[in-house]
Amino acid sequence: MRSATLLQETSILQEMPVEMPRAKTRSITVLGATGSIGQNCLRVIAESAEGRFTVQALTAMNNVTQLVEDAKRFRPQFVAIGNEAHYGQLKDALAGTGIAVGAGEAALVEAARMPADTVLSAMVGAAGLRPTLAAIERGAMIALANKECLIAAGVLMKEAAKRSGARLLPVDSEHSAVFQVFSRTHPEWVEKVTLTASGGPFREWTREEMQSVTPEAALRHPTWSMGAKISVDSATLMNKGLELIEAFHLFPLTPDQLDVVIHPQSIVHSLVSYQDGSVLAQLGTPDMRSPIAYALAWPERIKTRTPRLDLAALGALTFEAPDLSRFPALALAKAALREGAWACVALNAANEIAVEAFLAKRIGFLDIVSVVEEALAATQPGAIRTLSDVFAADRAAREQAETAILPLEH
Ligand code: NAD
Ligand code: MG
Questions:
Q1: Which of 44, 67, 70, 124 should be mutated for ligand 1, with most atoms under 8 A from CB?
Q2: Which atom of ligand 1 is nearest to the CA of 242?
């Protein structure tokens, strides 16, 4: 507790301009509400001060039970389920509540078009692109967790945001960290950005040991609790590769200014190095409610109920260089970033297919990155200028990945 007598009367902060808007209720639409990020977002909303947030719309792909429970609790105006087969069940469960219901991809886009102040994009995969773009086009604030859509269409999303006045606010913990310590006024002072990576569950494993990794083992992440796809991406380190591309789109940096360091405790969420030798980092316990709260309340900060950081109890934070020979996904993603937009679309699309095949036990763990590499090599380079270019490159890479999977299936 701060006591008035101990509080200094002057501080250097008094000289600084304060431009905090008055707190008001913000309406939030959650795309991918039943997932790990979506549920954490609803926890942030439930745990925040009365009247801080309202929920405008919720969407999910398949989990009707969770969606109905959350709709009854948060009373949105509209709820959409991606899989049309569940429409009847959703409609019956919400009959008489006054909550409108929709199904199919068009309904997900309709949800994004509802006039919420902020849209949390937390679907998984490039499938999130159309709804996220719909929210950008109407000028909403976008709390962006769905990194795959940015990797597939970052330039188009930013152009659309410029036209509409939409703001992209990162939710990914590393990018939220960078966003919090990156100079708004003088980006040219920044020398380098270093993303931290936990190293995943197989950080110390040999390639030989990784050969027999099962989906169950890959899903057990040492520090974060997340959805299946990103957990596998974290185990191959493809997640960090995708995050390099994500950072490239979010901040004014060249690929050479982006770096990765392994930090198994996941306490330092990322670092920004300045030209005077200072390094600013953002720290916190590994709990997604903190970066979600920052994106929802930005530019303000709200209270969260995340466990507080106790450095003395932790004792030590460790760092090591990533081993690109054991984790080739990182090198592959770096190469795609240098290659250009089509290679990033292809990398992401092929990876989505390969991860699905691994989770379905069609291929082994080490095959994931081999499939992506093969699909990338077989995909025809092309310019990415429009959304149809993105979808064409995405489709081609998915087909190449399926072709690469066939001889590996067991
Ligand atoms: P998840 O699998 O737990 O949840 C995904 C959500 O999206 C679910 O609500 C699901 O119903 C919905 N969904 C799935 N496929 C869809 C489709 N084709 N169309 C529409 N909706 C669909 O995933 P998650 O872990 O919450 O991750 C969501 C996104 O956030 C991913 O892009 C991931 O990379 C990113 N992210 C997650 C974390 C984390 O801690 N979980 C951290 C950083 C970034
Ligand atoms: Mg991350």
A1: 124
A2: 34
Q: Which residue has the tokens 């087909």?
A: 399
pTM score over 0.85: yes
Tokens representing 80 are 């959409």
Alpha-carbon distances, residue 40 vs 177, 379, 384 (angstroms): 18, 37, 34
**Phi and psi for 30 in degrees, rounded to 5?**
-110, 110
Residue with the two structure tokens 């990194």: 147
User: Residue 224: its pLDDT value, please?
Assistant: 85
The answer to whether 269 and 278 have CB atoms below 8 angstroms apart is no
Maximum distance among all alpha carbons in the chain?
74
In this structure, are residues 109 and 117 in contact, taking their beta carbons and an 8 Å threshold? no
Q: What is the per-residue pLDDT across 188-222, written as a single tens digit (0 to 9) for each? A: 999 999 999 999 999 999 999 999 999 999 999 88
Question: Closest Cα to atom 24, ligand 1: which residue?
Answer: 227
Instruction: With cut-offs at 50, 70 and 90, classify the pLDDT of residue 12.
Output: low
Q: What mean pLDDT value characterizes the chain?
A: 95
Both tokens of residue 172?
């990914």
Enumerate residues lining ligand 1, CB below 6 A.
Answer: 32-38, 60-63, 82, 108, 122-125, 127, 145-148, 172, 224, 226-228, 230, 288
User: Which domains does the chain possess?
Assistant: 26-171 (3.40.50.720), 176-287+309-314 (no CATH), 340-408 (1.10.1740.10)
Mean pLDDT of 45-50: 97
* Measured distance CA(121)–CA(132) in Å, rounded: 6
Contacts of residues 101-108 at CB distance under 8 Å and 24 or more positions apart, as own/partner, are 102/78, 105/130, 107/59, 107/80, 107/81, 107/82, 108/31, 108/59, 108/80, 108/82
Query: What does DSSP assign to residue 308?
Result: P
Short-list 40, 122, 58, 74, CA closest to 304: 40
3-state secondary structure of 52: coil
Residue 9 Cα to ligand 1 midpoint, Å, equals: 47
Are 287 and 37 in contact by the 8 Å Cβ rule? The answer is no
Q: What is the dihedral of CA 106, 126, 200, 207, to 10 degrees?
A: 130
